[in-house]
Amino acid sequence: MLTKAVHMPTTPRLHASRTDKETSGFRSPEEEELERKQRELEKLQSELAESELELATLRSELIAFERRYLEVVGSRYAELDALEAQIAESVARSRPTDPSARQKAESARARAQESEEAMGDVGREDSAPGFAPTEELKALYRQAAKELHPDLTSDEEERERRRKAMAELNRAYEECDEQRIRQILAEWRSSPEQVHGDDTAAQLVRAIREIAQVHKRLGAIKAEIDELAQCELCRLVKQVEEAATAGRDLLAEIAARLDGRIEKAGDKLRDVCKAGGQP
Length: 279
Prior knowledge:
The protein has nine helices and no strands. It has helices spanning 13-24, 29-94, 99-119, 135-148, 156-174, 178-190, 200-230, 232-245, 250-277. The longest helix is centred in the N-terminal third of the chain and has 66 residues, at 29-94. Residues 1-23 and 123-128 have low confidence and may be disordered.
């Protein structure tokens, strides 16, 4: 007679815990792909923000340099062109039967008007504002661009809203207005449109489309930077910088030469007027 209890083998705890872990941690292929795409998009957001910063900085530097150029050099060209127009008109008045003199006067006056229009509101007495963004301002711009860039959404209505915000951001950056950028960012974060919620499939499709848009924008930024780098104004900036490295002020040198030409043109105008071309 058997009196000893028979012990049945139990299921190992290891198998049970592994099964529980696998069950609780299960993710669908769509969820895993969404996570990968979101990581890729996050990386691209940083790259896009950096590229937008580079482009905005280059644009702002060129605008600031153009203002300085107009103040120092452009104003003198405008003055010289105005004097030369007066000389040509005086000569034409002294030769009423000479069609070539009249044509030269008309051409000189047209050139003088173009120079005056190019000057806009810039005057020799005005001080052209400089562009000197701090590292804090650049970091703030990067953060704002990452959050509100129009190519980070596939919804067209949302893109338009972001385009307007991005345009404001770029203007504020150009003016080195840190407070305005903080305000734009705060308003953006607190807007009700920032609340979203979709299923996994929709989020995945949106992420894929947004990645494609970011790649497209990165290509456009590179093309624009390359184009700006080849423009005449950018080449002049490089020449000025190279001269400064050598201890020279290239714009001041150009201005000095123009001052000499302006003085000679003034003398010539007086001579022409004395010779019979007095208005």
